[in-house]
Amino acid sequence: MKAIFAYPLVILVLLAASFAFMTNAEEKMPASSKQGRTEIATLAGGCFWCTESDLEKLDGVIDVVSGYSGGKLKQPTYKQVASGKTEHIEVIQVTYDPDVVSYEAVLDQLFRHMDPTDALGSFVDRGPQYRPAIFYHNEQQKQIATQFMAQIDELGIYQKPLNTELIKFEQFWPAENYHQDYAKNNKVRYNYYRYASGRDAYLDQIFGDDRESNPITLRQMIEQSKGAKRYLKPSQDKIKASLNELQYYVTQEDGTERPFDNEYWDNKKAGIYVDVVTGEPLFSSTDKYRSGTGWPSFTQPISDAFVITTTDYKLIYPRTEVRSKFGDSHLGHVFKDGPEPTGLRYCMNSAAMRFVAKEDMRKEGYAEYLYLFDS
């Protein structure tokens, strides 16, 4: 009898162990993986080597495939698409977990890694096959994209209107194998191409050169801007007519005024300094100090909402340039040799700024910054 019952007992033990293993493994899987829930976004932002690499960095993205969409030719080749004659656009197809990342967040990642204003190409890659586009798979995606782009336009961060097409998705053709994961498989060539393309230089100018280490999403910017005063950059003709020769040279041509021979280097009055072009509030006298350089110097800006930093190679060695966010005015540079509490020295050009005395701030529309002088 022992021999008869031995085999069923072994089988029961094995089945129990197998069930326990499967249950434990399932508990470790995310809910969406248990249910098999995924969604797809088809997007165009210029060279698909770059957009594929950038979208793969987003949490919740499962897979990104480079390919072609928008044309009628079946199974197009890279050579055919690159000719610009097939009506196809270089795209990526993003498979993502909707329980981890939303469709809007996927679009947010795309917009922060491309130029959505250029309908004639993308950086060094010219032609309709490189234009920005969103291929919506359903009406919900179309509605989300339409609303999000309208809000981005209102934000005004790109300084030009968005020119990204919304196209109904029909067919996706994967690109040749050598295009897939190009950034990973061809690091040297990819890095050289990306640098030479001008993509990152443009993105640094829009979002700041700390955009990767300290990312702020467009959605966060939109929420922060609600209720805030809007600042718009005038046309070049209006700028030229409103500025004197030195102001134009500094703000529009990235010039530098002479030290100890400028309006505010020794100004000790209480008030704020605003962009001479747009009026954006930039710096406060409460953060101003005498640096001995002959230029007005500050430990910090009033708000990061109105200043951005980029890397400047005009003197061969890299410097951190400071520009106004909406006016895109060249203001000066920031150095890491300042006093506490920041250890920074924002070395600005007087010609790039206009001083608003504390007693005039209310009538000029800057009452919300009077709190700076409470102490």
CATH-derived topology of the largest domain: Peptide Methionine Sulfoxide Reductase, Chain A
Q: Using the 3D structure, state the CATH architecture of the largest domain.
A: 2-Layer Sandwich
- The overall number of domains is 2
> What are the low-pLDDT stretches, counting only 5+ consecutive residues below 50?
1-35
Q: Major sheet: size, sense and barrel closure?
A: 6 strands, mixed
How much of the sequence is in beta strands?
15-25%
Shape label: elongated
> What's the gyration radius in Å?
27 Å
CATH superfamily descriptor of the largest domain: Peptide methionine sulphoxide reductase MsrA
Helix content: 25-40%
Give the topology string: H per helix, E per strand.
HHEHEHEHEEEHEEHHHHHHEEEEEEEEE
Measured distance between first and last alpha carbons: 93 Å
Q: Which class of the largest domain in CATH terms?
A: Alpha Beta
SSE-based structural type: alpha+beta
Mean pLDDT: 89
What is the number of E strands? 17
The DSSP helix count reads: 12
Q: How are the strands of the largest sheet arranged?
A: 7-6-1-3-2-8
Keywords: Multifunctional enzyme, Oxidoreductase, Signal
InterPro entries: Met_Sox_Rdtase_MsrA_dom (IPR002569), Met_Sox_Rdtase_MsrA_sf (IPR036509), Met_Sox_Rdtase_MsrB_dom (IPR002579), Mss4-like_sf (IPR011057)
Active site: 47
EC number: 1.8.4.11
Task: Describe it.
This protein is α+β, with helices and mostly antiparallel strands and 375 residues long. The protein folds into two domains: 34-224, 2-Layer Sandwich (Peptide Methionine Sulfoxide Reductase, Chain A), CATH 3.30.1060.10; 236-373, Metal Binding Protein, Guanine Nucleotide Exchange Factor, Chain A (Beta Complex), CATH 2.170.150.20. Helices cover 32% and strands 22% of the residues. It is built from twelve helices and 17 strands. The protein has helices at residues 2-28, 31-35, 48-55, 78-82, 103-111, 139-155, 182-185, 187-197, 199-207, 218-225, 236-242, 245-253; strands at residues 39-44, 61-69, 89-96, 121-122, 125-126, 133-136, 165-168, 172-174, 271-275, 281-284, 288-289, 297-298, 307-315, 317-324, 330-335, 345-348, 353-357. The strands form four sheets. The protein has a six-stranded mixed beta sheet, with helices on one face. The protein has a six-stranded antiparallel beta sheet with strand order 11-12-16-15-14-13. Strands 10-9-17 form a three-stranded antiparallel beta sheet, with no helix packed on it. A hairpin with a 7-residue loop joins strand 11 and strand 12. The protein is elongated, with a radius of gyration of 27 Å.
